[in-house]
Amino acid sequence: MVTRYRTSAFNDDGGTGVSRVPDGLEVAVSNPLQPGHDTAASNPEQLLALAWSTCLNATAQAIVAGRHRTKARVEVELRDAEGRAGYEFLVTAFISGEGLDASEAAELAAAAHDRCPISRLLRESPLAEVRGEAWSAS
Predict the structure, then answer these.
(1) What average pLDDT does the chain have?
(2) Can you tell me the distance from the alpha carbon of 72 to that of 133, in angstroms, rounded to the nearest whole number?
(3) Ordered DSSP codes for 16-48
(4) What does the alpha-carbon distance between residue 83 and residue 21 come to, in Å, rounded to a whole number?
């Protein structure tokens, strides 16, 4: 197996502070459950949505090979965990392709979910789902 890229990130501030990539990106983070949280800062929910939507859309674009424009939209919900203490994420990804009907968009979504590395981490989770959806210009 060939490693194509490797990175790391760290956080020593918890939910409010900064998360960092060594010698690179620094992201201000703020816990959305805290009263008065910094809405200009990010949070794990947003970072997960950004990462998965980027991975899914890059994969969808590779699949359609320039035949269609594609979009990926990810919704992340933080909720009380069912049957245990703490919280859990419920994540739903939506894939669309310009000019694709609902069935074709669903096929593209399934194919992208099968190939996207982040999807491979989430595939077996009952809390993650990928769906096709109609193209929207916005």
Answers:
(1) 95
(2) 10
(3) SEEEE-TTS-EEEE--TTSTT--TTSB-HHHHH
(4) 34
